[in-house]
Amino acid sequence: MPWSSQNGGGGPWGGGGNKGPWGQGPQPPRGGGGGGGKPPDLDEIIRRGQDMLRRATPGGGSGGGALIGLIVVVFLLVIWLSQAIYTVQPDQRGVELRFGAPKQEIAMPGLHFLWWPFETVDRVPIVEQQMAIGSAGGGTSSGLMLTGDQNIVEVQFNVLYAVTDPKKYLFNIATPDSTLRQVSESAMREVVGRRPAQDIFRDNRAAIAQEVKSIIQSTMNDYNAGLNINAVSIEDAAPPQQVADAFDEVQRAEQDEDRFKQEANQYANKKLGQARGEAAQLREAADAYRQKVVNQAQGESQRFTAVLGAYQKAPEVTRRRLYLDTMQQVLGGSNKVILDKNAEGGGQGVVPYLPLPEVRAGQDRNQSGSSNTNQSTQGQGGNQ
């Protein structure tokens, strides 16, 4: 062994002959009777320990300290480079801080370098983000709101936003996401509180979402938060679970009311159309009658004027013609039996006893028989 003594029989520290590790025998206690040696020197102990460490190191310990120092330096350099070199992704922007104060420049996507630990970087996503607010996104009661007609509704909506100024987003507001959530809830409560429940349920969701978006954007601009609100979408609006049945009954009643109104409007339109058609028909008939009467009157006046002119030229002839025309109009459509008064007997005593109704009935039978004969003849000709 390296520490073995030439004389042999020593301990591991080179002593022998019952000597200690530094070549001295055991010292008697102070005041004892066996001869007194002096205690070991501390510097000597440190020196011998260093010698032993150098002998244990490969190469006699001449370059061991330098190698360890080099390893430590390389390790520290790697750590420093890992903090000093950073990457900004395409959907991010970086804000470098020097002693905690932001720099003027914004780090664009790519590889960048800074003097760490004096400089640090905060990365901010600039893509559109979605914040869900209501029972699905917030607390259990964050979606409960009071409407303008004193009803309670549970609203779930999303806010789509994007960061437009990373420095404002990081340093103008302590907690921008929490602030945006609170502002969004407040804006929705404000708008819903001014409107009836029917608007948020069915009728006017788009207008409500647009108004809420405008309020959120205006408030965040006042805070100088560096955010742009792209859209607000109402995902669901329903009554609370405890009163859902009552709201369903109200909805069914309102639907029945709308249906009855539509049916009444259809009936009214039908009747109104019929009345308008009848009125138009009556107006057209009255106008036609008016035109007919006017034309007849004008024709009669023109005919009278023409007859008057003819009468003034030939009174006797015109008088005779008027008489014949009048008799033709009077007797043309009546039943007549013509007797020749110049026959034998002069026709005296015949007229009172002549059965005129039977004569007329016989004439009618003869006419009907002749018409039936003509029809049968025509039918036979058609069959042939």
UniProtKB/TrEMBL annotation:
<keyword id="KW-0472">Membrane</keyword>
<comment type="subunit">
    <text>HflC and HflK may interact to form a multimeric complex.</text>
</comment>
<feature type="compositionally biased region" description="Gly residues">
    <location>
        <begin position="7"/>
        <end position="23"/>
    </location>
</feature>
<feature type="region of interest" description="Disordered">
    <location>
        <begin position="1"/>
        <end position="44"/>
    </location>
</feature>
<feature type="coiled-coil region">
    <location>
        <begin position="243"/>
        <end position="292"/>
    </location>
</feature>
<dbReference type="InterPro" id="IPR010201">
    <property type="entry name" value="HflK"/>
</dbReference>
<keyword id="KW-0812">Transmembrane</keyword>
<comment type="similarity">
    <text>Belongs to the band 7/mec-2 family. HflK subfamily.</text>
</comment>
<keyword id="KW-0175">Coiled coil</keyword>
<keyword id="KW-1133">Transmembrane helix</keyword>
<feature type="region of interest" description="Disordered">
    <location>
        <begin position="344"/>
        <end position="384"/>
    </location>
</feature>
<feature type="transmembrane region" description="Helical">
    <location>
        <begin position="62"/>
        <end position="81"/>
    </location>
</feature>
<dbReference type="GO" id="GO:0006508">
    <property type="term" value="P:proteolysis"/>
</dbReference>
<dbReference type="GO" id="GO:0016020">
    <property type="term" value="C:membrane"/>
</dbReference>
<dbReference type="InterPro" id="IPR050710">
    <property type="entry name" value="Band7/mec-2_domain"/>
</dbReference>
<keyword id="KW-0645">Protease</keyword>
<feature type="domain" description="Band 7">
    <location>
        <begin position="83"/>
        <end position="251"/>
    </location>
</feature>
<dbReference type="InterPro" id="IPR001107">
    <property type="entry name" value="Band_7"/>
</dbReference>
<dbReference type="GO" id="GO:0008233">
    <property type="term" value="F:peptidase activity"/>
</dbReference>
<keyword id="KW-0378">Hydrolase</keyword>
<protein>
    <recommendedName>
        <fullName>Protein HflK</fullName>
    </recommendedName>
</protein>
<comment type="function">
    <text>HflC and HflK could encode or regulate a protease.</text>
</comment>
<dbReference type="Pfam" id="PF01145">
    <property type="entry name" value="Band_7"/>
</dbReference>
<dbReference type="InterPro" id="IPR036013">
    <property type="entry name" value="Band_7/SPFH_dom_sf"/>
</dbReference>
<feature type="compositionally biased region" description="Low complexity">
    <location>
        <begin position="366"/>
        <end position="378"/>
    </location>
</feature>
